[in-house]
């Protein structure tokens, strides 16, 4: 990328002005994840004009794309070549929104139903170009997997909530779409489902997604046709209609299921949605409310009005951590507190890349 580019030049000018005046900037793409993390504050910095696919090498399974590009446009372009972003990034589209952008996707670092099978967003980030808080255009990584010597800042951008700098362009590894898939349904209670998820992990099955809620467990099998057919026969579940299955996994990905739709009245009454990351082998958690389980038991959503301290405590007791995903009051913090050594590393990295602290203040941790 070149700072002579008129769109990038405008962004650079806004960053330099903010740095000189100590004005915080609120980096915005599609604004579909404005609810996630700390409350946005600062002068809006709209990234949507910095859009377009810079290069796509289908035979190398690599795409380089500008941060303001709509995620839907990128996936449509990949689909023309039978390729996809295998981690299934969520949209969280709201009425009137054009949809999330590639920059949103990387900054949030959220993955969909296939996360347990294929990996995290950062596992697919090969390189990135960013503007730091001094207005310097920096490039990290490249367009192949083994391209980094030293500190890999490009992958640190994934899940950073924009606090490290302004992501301008990113190179991503993509994968071919799988040839076949089918979804099976089973009736099990929560404890049975968790036990069975553990048993399934020991078997060579092409499971690419799993969910449990309200006594209904669903598994998605995907891959080579023969492997999917054989696995489906061995599991003996009830096949789910292909259109219904596609809608089910898409609605989990984008939180369009009724379970995730906490309205304003419920939020005002103290109901919250928590995202828990725990060992998949952990038993059911002793928390009030209703649960929704993904990733073979490793990701558990809890919809509850329990005190804000109870859910993180239960997650910690199980060997994991909790994120306050949707709530009216996030004054206690969104993400689990870091240990002192980890927080020191975060602060030093923030100071090195954004010394004036202008980017997305408070979105990740209140300390920066």
Structural description of this entry:
There is one protein chain. This protein has 3 domains: 6-176 and 345-353, Uridine Diphospho-n-acetylenolpyruvylglucosamine Reductase, domain 3 (2-Layer Sandwich); 180-254, Alpha-Beta Plaits, CATH 3.30.70; 259-326, Alpha-Beta Plaits (2-Layer Sandwich), CATH 3.30.70. It has helices at 6-21, 71-79, 102-108, 115-118, 153-156, 190-201, 225-235, 242-254, 264-268, 310-317, 340-353; strands at 25-28, 43-46, 53-57, 62-66, 83-84, 125-131, 137-141, 166-173, 175-176, 180-187, 207-213, 216-223, 238-239, 272-277, 290-294, 299-304, 321-326. The model has no long low-confidence stretch (mean pLDDT 93). It contains 11 helices and 17 strands. The relative contact order is 0.13.
């Amino acid at each position: 990328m070149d700072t002579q580019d008129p769109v990038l030049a405008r962004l650079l000018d806004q960053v330099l002005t903010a740095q000189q005046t100590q004005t915080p900037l609120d980096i915005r793409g599609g604004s579909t994840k404005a609810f996630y993390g700390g409350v946005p504050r600062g002068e809006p910095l709209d990234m949507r004009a910095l859009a377009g696919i810079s290069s796509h090498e289908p035979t190398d399974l690599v795409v380089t794309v500008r941060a303001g590009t709509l995620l839907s446009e990128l996936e449509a372009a990949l689909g023309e070549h039978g390729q996809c972003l295998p981690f299934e990034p969520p949209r969280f589209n709201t009425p009137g929104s054009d949809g999330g952008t590639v920059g949103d996707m990387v900054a949030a670092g959220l993955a969909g139903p296939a996360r347990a099978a294929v990996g995290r967003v950062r596992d697919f980030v090969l390189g990135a170009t960013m503007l730091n808080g001094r207005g310097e255009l920096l490039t990290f990584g490249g367009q192949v997997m083994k391209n980094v010597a030293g500190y890999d800042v490009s992958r640190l951008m994934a899940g950073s909530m924009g606090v490290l700098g302004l992501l301008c362009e990113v190179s991503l590894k993509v994968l071919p779409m799988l040839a076949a898939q089918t979804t099976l349904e089973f009736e099990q209670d929560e404890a049975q489902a968790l036990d069975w998820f553990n048993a399934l992990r020991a078997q060579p099955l092409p499971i690419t997604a799993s969910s449990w809620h309200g006594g209904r467990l669903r598994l998605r099998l995907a891959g080579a046709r023969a492997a999917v057919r054989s696995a489906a026969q061995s599991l003996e579940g009830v096949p789910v209609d292909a259109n219904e299955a596609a809608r089910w996994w898409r609605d989990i990905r984008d939180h369009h299921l009724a379970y995730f739709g906490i309205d304003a009245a419920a939020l005002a009454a103290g109901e919250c949605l928590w995202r828990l990351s725990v060992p998949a082998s952990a038993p059911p958690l002793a928390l009030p409310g209703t649960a929704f389980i993904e990733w073979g038991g490793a990701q558990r959503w809890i919809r509850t009005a329990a005190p804000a301290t109870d859910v993180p405590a239960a997650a910690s007791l199980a060997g994991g951590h909790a994120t306050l995903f949707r709530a009216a009051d996030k004054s206690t913090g969104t993400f689990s507190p870091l240990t002192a050594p980890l927080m020191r590393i975060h602060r030093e990295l923030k100071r090195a890349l954004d010394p004036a602290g202008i980017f997305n203040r408070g979105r990740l941790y209140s300390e920066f």
